[in-house]
């Protein structure tokens, strides 16, 4: 064999390898449904592209999260998603109705490294977040509110408030403001909660409905105190905006990845789920989005300053309450109806 022949063989082999990789990459593409927005760009850079490069499995991201669409796709047998993000109450509803596929943990977490709270029969906890009080640091003469009682105290901390247009969590916040211990919230004393809400209602300038709105109200000064998702405030502080948050009385919540019933590529979706166990990728994601999951070794790799602003930091966990999605899955329709009537009264 001549040197020229060997060169041709090498080129042919390289071409076949490239064709094989290309064919493999095009063989399967999973559809992953999530919240969209800036987080979707971070997930693409940190998880999706490296996963495709490593496995040849393509990832197509869609949004938004919708329990109604999941229900419709399962019932019609026309499932478009292989993996979807889900909140706690939606997760319970989906499990109850048989809309999800059981997770094969031999694929996702074969070495059993995740804590039990993150390994559930029909979903993996991918992130944690908290709904907390945020306030303007330049409006109270150097004083800082410390609790839900202070949120209700418009004499010591005057100015308009902002709350989400939903009974979910607002009933808990009202009960905390009224002195109910965090570990005694459930089942909710609904009458007591609405009575307490009556006291703050006329001081609420806006009932927000989106994440962008909750912080814009504070930045624009339309509210001096309001509820926000914890990850919305650190970027504002970096920009020098006079805002801060209070962890005391925050609602600690879980977010999941789940495989819908009827997903076309469940095994490939579960292989992608496994990528969320990489602590180095988890640290990268935290730079963009302070909503940590339970990737083994993640907290040990995070700087102390970053760890302090995470919902799962021990100091923050100690002063929050655990949101109960089971309660809301059962009572939400009835309480939402009452909430709407209360707002109009």
Q: Would you kindly provide a written description of the structure presented here, covering whatever features stand out?
A:
The chain is an alpha/beta fold and 345 residues long. 46% of the residues lie in helices and 18% in strands. The chain has helices at 3-27, 37-55, 67-76, 88-96, 105-108, 148-152, 170-177, 190-200, 211-219, 233-238, 266-274, 279-288, 298-301, 304-307, 314-317, 325-344, and strands at 29-33, 58-62, 83-87, 119-120, 123-136, 161-164, 204-208, 225-229, 243-258, 321-322. Helix 2 links the parallel strand 1 and strand 2 (58-62). Helix 2 packs antiparallel against helix 12, helix 4 (88-96) packs across helix 16 and helix 7 packs across helix 8. The longest helix has 25 residues, at 3-27. The relative contact order is 0.16. The model is unreliable at 1-25 (pLDDT under 50).
What labels would you give this structure?
345 residues; ten-stranded mixed β-sheet; single chain; 18% strand; alpha/beta
